[in-house]
Amino acid sequence: MRRKLVAGNWKMNGSAESIRGLLQGIREGAAAVAAVELAVFPPFVYLESVEKQLSGTTVGWGTQNLSEHTSGAYTGEVAGPMLQDFHCKYVIVGHSERRTLYGETDQVIARKFAAARKVGVCPILCVGETLEEREKGVTEAVVERQIKAVLDLEGIGPFAEAVIAYEPVWAIGTGRTATSAQAQEVHAFIRAKLAAFDAHVAQQTRILYGGSMKAANAGELLAMPDIDGGLIGGASLEAKEFLAIAKAGC
Ligand code: PGA
């Protein structure tokens, strides 16, 4: 059985004060949704504070990005070993905002995936098509290409633990969610692609849905057989809403 993971991608939001309030709310509500695993992804500068506030709780944490390099002259970057210093469990790689706004290619993302694994931090690999790609009917080809770059570099083995997040770009931050049937279709496609390499591993891979997921639509999405949780942006900034999404997955 794959335990569901509900992950809050805070993006570039929050302040020391708002994060204290948010984490207090999440800590207080976590026990009631213990069937689901929770994790939060603050901006780098709050990582130490988040670690302090969540240590000893059941809530995990990680970052929204990492460098493909281990150390050196890479101004503004943060390396895998630094995430290890703050006991990150996860790191998001290849979010569509990184792909489109910061020009990260499939190959760069594959190397970031490898960099995370090298330091024992579990990568959450984001994939997903744009609206134009969906309308052209190439959703599966796009998602397959994005995953293949990682398979080519790292093989199928890491997917026993690594997480994939299917996030249709047209659903991110738009209020427009994929229907549960649309999401399930792509999730099943991803699992089948992994199964072609190793059926056992494919059964273990958690595949999250992301894109305007909220309490009101989470129940239907999380009931789908191949949807193993959610990567939540906007709705993860309020403890009540975030916990209500997790509740829907219990
Ligand atoms: P959203 O973002 O929930 O605000 O659509 C999801 C994501 O980008 O991970």
Question: If you had to describe this structure to a student in words, what would you say it looks like?
Answer:
Helix content is 44%, strand content 15%. With 250 residues, it is α/β, with parallel strands linked by helices. The chain has one domain: TIM Barrel. The chain is globular, with a radius of gyration of 17 Å. The protein binds 2-phosphoglycolic acid. 2-phosphoglycolic acid is lined by residues 9, 167, 172-173, 210-213, 231-235. Residues 9, 167, 172-173, 210-213, 231-235 line the site of 2-phosphoglycolic acid (PGA).
Number of strands: 8
Overall mean pLDDT stands at 97
CATH topology name, in short, is TIM Barrel
The oligomeric state of the chains shown is single chain
Strand content: 5-15%
Whole-number total of structural domains: 1
CATH homology superfamily: Aldolase class I
- The run of helices and strands is EHEHEHEHHEHHEHHEHEH
* Separation of the first and last Cα atoms: 13 Å
Number of distinct helices: 11
Radius of gyration: 17 Å
**Bound ligands, each once:** 2-phosphoglycolic acid
Strand line-up across the major sheet: 1-2-3-4-5-6-7-8
Q: Globular, elongated, flat, extended or rod-shaped: what is the shape?
A: globular
